[in-house]
Amino acid sequence: MQQGNGVEEVFWGLAVTDIQDACDLFIPLYEESKGGDGFVSLEASPLLAHDGDGTVAAASRLHKLVNEPNLMIKILATVDYIPAVKTVISQGISVNVTLIFFSLARYEAVIDAYLEGLEAANAQASLAFKLFQEKFNGPRWEALAKRGANKQRLPRYSLHCSLDRSWHNEHHAS
């Protein structure tokens, strides 16, 4: 930390480091379960209450800062945050949606946001694959391949959404 940082900046610096360390501890479980378990959740600032766009920006920023595959960004299941769930998931960021217990209608809205986010991510992945196929075929690529160039590897995304930990723990207890 550099001298002169504000309290919030210091907090997030420490929080990111702690979350990275926790992610490192849980990565063996994450890998062994093929991404089914071993996640660590980090919530965006509570100062963003009722600010869906701010939450999306914070989720993207934290996802980039932590840079761990087993990170989940925690987003509350409030009316203001439902669109943020969809947007964050569509960006390929795993989400832990919390406080769904308000009503079945809220739970349904969270499920819809999750599905819509996955659909958007899938559409983006399809476009990226199409672009990949276009760019790595044809005379330009073939000339490079003849000189030993290798094709770029496509990134793989793993999307997860934890809808309600208490429900999950109750119904998946071992």
UniProtKB/TrEMBL annotation:
Record protein name field: Transaldolase
InterPro entries for the chain: Aldolase_TIM (IPR013785), TAL/FSA (IPR001585), Transaldolase_2 (IPR004732)
Domain of life: Eukaryota
Keyword DNA-binding assigned: no
The protein's role, per its UniProt record: Transaldolase is important for the balance of metabolites in the pentose-phosphate pathway.
UniProt-listed GO biological process terms: pentose-phosphate shunt
Organism, scientific name: Riccia fluitans
Any GO molecular function: transferase activity
Keyword Transferase belongs to the record: yes
